[in-house]
Design brief:
By secondary structure, the chain is an alpha/beta fold. The protein is built from 12 helices and 14 strands. The chain is globular.
């Protein structure tokens, strides 16, 4: 309920995922490279959407996927992101609220349309995406609700948003409010291309602004401009309270204080779609962190959530993560 303490509030791109089946011939027709993700303008997004077959529309975006995972674990979560007051904005708002995530950011009443990611899934389960960021990029400092940040044990920020000046101001505002309230700030590097664009700023964030860092091995090595994850682990020590580096099927490495823990990946019968694996790993880790788990337990919860999401198409869990968490938490 509004006013109660939250485990996690996330700030990120508010995107509607539009998922439809397609053939290889459909991709060729639209000049798309299978498995790729390209950013498009509004006109291209409208044309591609009009050409799609029957589709499923859900709220999406990296940080939104993470708080969806937290809610699936049974945690209390909220999301801050910008939509337009259009039909897609209504879809995003209804969907994210329907899974138990608080969402109250006022929609934009003018300007660009709600962001959307058009996902074409071919028979081999490969996903090809065209993304229009639209209103999602218009998040500003005034959209950050101080009361919401203060209520949350952790404020989680996605690096994808670190581009427009107004969005950067919003993320900095959220960090400042969280620390003023004695809360933690978690940050995801999101993508090696984000790191390449903003390396110096991201490194500076580690010295006082970010308490918990999430990255995969490619992002971590890019951030510190080193050749191996071992070197990245050495470089991050002492820079922030906790760093969690994911390594795909090899699991993750967690750095906290003097401890460096290598935690295996959770087993999965068949990898169908790796989209959202990092987002859900962060969900499990943060759920554990806000519910008293030690660092190994946090990483194991992250692995469990990642394993669930890569076993099917889509970046949201289909199985309640709360049940999957019980064996992990019972280990103490």
């Amino acid at each position: 309920m509004p006013g109660d303490e939250l485990d996690v509030v996330a700030v990120g791109h508010a995107i509607v995922d539009v998922i439809a089946s397609a053939s290889d011939e459909d991709l060729d027709l639209h000049g798309l490279v299978k498995g790729s993700m390209v950013l498009v303008h509004a006109e291209q997004a409208d044309a591609s959407y009009a050409a799609m077959g029957p589709a499923v529309q859900t709220s999406g975006g990296s940080a939104a996927n993470t708080v969806a995972g937290v809610a699936s674990f049974g945690g209390a979560a909220a999301f801050i992101g910008k939509v337009r007051d259009d039909e897609m904005g209504k879809v995003f708002t209804h969907d994210i609220r329907s899974i138990g995530v608080e969402f109250s950011t006022p929609p934009a009443t003018e300007g660009e349309a709600t962001a959307r990611c058009l996902v074409l899934v071919t028979p081999d389960a490969e996903r090809t995406m065209t993304t229009y960021l639209g209103a999602a990029r218009r998040l500003a400092a005034e959209d950050i609700d101080p009361a919401l940040i203060t209520r949350a044990q952790v404020t989680y920020l996605e690096g994808y948003l670190w581009d427009p000046p107004d969005a950067i101001s919003a993320l900095r505002q959220a960090m400042a409010l969280a620390h003023a309230a004695g809360r933690r700030v978690a940050f995801s590097l999101s993508d090696p291309f984000c790191v390449d664009r903003h390396r110096d700023e991201f490194l500076a964030l580690l010295d006082g602004d970010v308490d918990v860092l999430f990255a995969n091995d490619a992002e971590a090595t890019s951030l510190f401009e080193v050749a191996s994850l071992e070197e990245a682990v050495a470089a991050v020590r002492g820079r922030c309270e906790i760093a969690a580096f994911t390594r795909g099927p090899e699991g993750s490495v967690v750095v906290g204080g003097d401890a460096v823990l290598a935690v295996p990946a959770a087993p999965v019968d068949q990898v169908v779609d790796t989209t959202g694996a990092g987002d859900l790993y962060a969900a499990g880790f943060l759920f554990g962190l806000t519910h008293g788990a030690d660092l190994e337990g946090c990483a194991r919860l992250g692995s469990v959530a990642a394993a669930e999401v890569i076993s099917h198409i889509g970046a949201r869990p289909r199985t309640s993560l709360a049940a999957l968490a019980v064996p992990v938490l019972s280990r103490g």
